[in-house]
């Protein structure tokens, strides 16, 4: 027998989706339907399902507005542990503020996911990230400084998960960093590339190489590998 596999849906939220998202990723809505299919088709047997949400306070440190500068400028920010360590950050438009429309799952996904959350036929959970004001998160496992861990890794371990399959937004930011941390945490990690969208699709080759460098397997929705997760 193989291991136990979790499906991880990263940041499928209105602010990352066209046409109205403040940080919309081109063609983001195209992946909603096939992701719902992964969740609802009797063909697939997941042992756990997690959907993540970027979940910021309105004055979050990653917002350009917080620093009174233009979105997409970069700024050197210091570690919240006052160690003196600094990292260059891209500052974003205000996005995914807690309890706003932009932080919500798209309705058609939410309808399905809420049902699964209620039923708990398999362990199903929302993991929030980005709620501490003073630090950026791309990964759903921890902040960019590796100081604060979310409950993601523990939840996967508690449910005996060995393998993680990721989809969502964005291929080159939150999905990538979540996958890298998933692999670091010892989970065999896969990303279904055509069920993600990138902020910078012209850099896909570079992004894919980075996944592979960090022991994450990049597959597509037509890969043979998907049969391993089918009934
Ligand atoms: Zn964010």
Features:
binds zinc ion, 22% strand, alpha/beta, Rossmann fold, two-stranded antiparallel sheet
Task: Describe what you observe in this structure.
Helix content is 22%, strand content 22%. With 231 residues, the protein is an alpha/beta fold. It has a single domain (5-58, 100-229), classed as Isochorismatase-like (Rossmann fold). Strand 1, helix 1 (32-40) and strand 2 (48-54) form a beta-alpha-beta unit. The radius of gyration is 17 Å and the shape is globular. The two termini are 13 Å apart. The chain binds zinc ion (ZN). The site of zinc ion has 6 residues, from loops. Residues 5-222 form the Isochorismatase-like domain. Pathway: Cofactor biosynthesis; nicotinate biosynthesis; nicotinate from nicotinamide: step 1/1. GO terms for molecular function: metal ion binding; nicotinamidase activity.
- Small-molecule binders: zinc ion
The CATH topology label is Rossmann fold
**Global structural class:** alpha/beta
Within CATH, the superfamily carries the name Isochorismatase-like
Strand order of the largest sheet: 5-2-1-6-7-8
Per CATH, the class reads Alpha Beta
Question: How many strand segments?
Answer: 8
Counting H and I runs of at least 4 residues, what is the number of helices? 5
What are the segments in which pLDDT stays under 50 over at least 5 consecutive residues? none
Largest sheet: 6 strands, parallel
Beta-strand fraction estimate: 15-25%
- Overall tally of domains: 1
């Amino acid at each position: 027998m193989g291991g136990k596999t979790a499906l991880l849906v990263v940041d499928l939220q209105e602010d990352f989706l066209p046409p109205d998202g403040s940080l919309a990723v081109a063609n983001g809505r195209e992946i909603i339907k096939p992701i719902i299919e992964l969740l609802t088709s009797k063909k697939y047997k997941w042992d756990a399902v997690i959907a993540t949400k970027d979940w910021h306070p309105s004055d979050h440190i990653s917002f350009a507005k917080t620093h009174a500068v233009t979105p997409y400028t970069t700024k050197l920010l210091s570690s919240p542990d006052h160690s003196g360590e600094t990292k260059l950050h891209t500052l974003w438009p205000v996005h995914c503020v807690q309890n706003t429309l932009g932080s919500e799952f798209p309705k058609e996904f939410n309808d399905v996911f809420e049902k699964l959350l209620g039923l708990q036929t398999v362990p199903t959970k929302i993991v929030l990230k980005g709620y501490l004001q003073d630090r950026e998160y791309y990964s759903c496992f921890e902040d960019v400084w590796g100081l604060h861990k979310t409950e993601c890794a523990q939840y996967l371990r508690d449910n005996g998960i060995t393998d993680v399959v990721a989809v969502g937004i964005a291929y080159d930011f939150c999905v990538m960093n979540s996958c890298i941390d998933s692999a670091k945490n010892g989970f065999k990690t896969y990303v279904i590339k055509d069920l993600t969208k990138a902020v910078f699709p012209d850099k896909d080759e570079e992004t894919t190489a980075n996944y592979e460098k960090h022991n994450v397997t990049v597959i597509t929705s037509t890969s043979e590998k998907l049969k391993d997760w089918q009934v």
